[in-house]
Amino acid sequence: MVGRALAGRFAELGHQVVIGTRDPQITLARSEVDALGTPPYTEWQQDHPDIGLLTLPAAGAYADLLVNATNGAASIAALSAAAIGDRNGLVVMDVANPLDFSTGAALPSLTVVNTDSLAEQIQRTFPNARVVKTLNTVNAAVMVDPGRVPGQHTVFVAGEDTDAKHIVTALLGEIGWPPNSVVDLGGLVAARGTEMYLPLWVATMRSLGTADFNITITRA
Ligand SMILES: NC(=O)c1ccc[n+]([C@@H]2O[C@H](COP(=O)([O-])OP(=O)(O)OC[C@H]3O[C@@H](n4cnc5c(N)ncnc54)[C@H](OP(=O)(O)O)[C@@H]3O)[C@@H](O)[C@H]2O)c1
User: Fold this and answer.
1) Is the pTM of this model over 0.85?
2) Which residues surround ligand 1 with Cβ inside 6 Å?
3) DSSP-assigned letter for residue 151
4) What mean pLDDT comes out for the span 43-68?
C-alpha cells in the first residue's frame, strides 16, 4: 500500500521511480486482492507503466533516495538484500513501523520499543546511510494527499543528517506537506516516539472508523 502510494505520487511529480520486491515473478503472478483489499500488483502496474519492478538489489543500486516501505519486522533483511550498505550517503526515507499483530492482543505491539527504534536499528546496521524517519504516523492515502484531512496537520522528520532531512522535507513539500506542517524532532532517537504512537493511531482509527485523520501540533 505505502510503496505503491508513494511511488505513484513521486512518478506523477516527474521523478523516476522503481519499486523493489523480493521476487518480481511472484509479485507479478499474484492475482488475488489481499486481506486489506489491496488489488494485485499487475492491476496497479497497468495504471503506472513507467514504474519498473526490480529485485531488491537492483532497486537498491538504482536509487538516489530510497524509501523503506517494507514490513517493519522484515526491514533490516529487505534493506540488506537491497545492499544499501554499499551506497555511501544514500538518503533512506524510513516510513516503516515495527508492528507485531501476531500476539492476537487487542492492539498491536512493537518488535522494538522504549530504548530503541526500527529507524535507529536501520541507521546502526547501515552506518553509511542517512536515515530520516517520516510519514509513519499517517495512513498511506493521507501521506500522499494530506488534503484528505481538512486544515493544517502535522508530519514529523527525525534523523542525524541535516542535509538529508532537508532533502526529505523538500520531497514532503512536493507531495503536499507545507514547511510549517513539518516538525523536525531532531535526532533519530525521536523515532522511538513516532513509532510508539502507532497503538494510539490504531485505537483512534477504530474509534473514528476511518484512517483519514491526523494529529496537529499547535504552537503557542
Ligand atoms: N499501510 C499504511 O497506511 C501505513 C502507514 C504508515 C506506515 N506504514 C508502514 O509502512 C510499511 C509498509 O506498509 P504496507 O501496509 O504498505 O505493507 P506491508 O504489508 O507491511 O509490507 C510491505 C512489503 O514488505 C515486504 N516484506 C514483507 N515481509 C518481508 C520479508 N520477510 N522480507 C522482505 N520483505 C518483506 C513485502 O514486499 P514484497 O512482497 O514485494 O517483497 C511487502 O509487500 C510497514 O512497515 C507499515 O507498518 C504503513
Assistant:
1) yes
2) 1-3, 21-22, 27, 69-72, 74, 77-78, 95-97, 99, 136, 139-140
3) S
4) 96
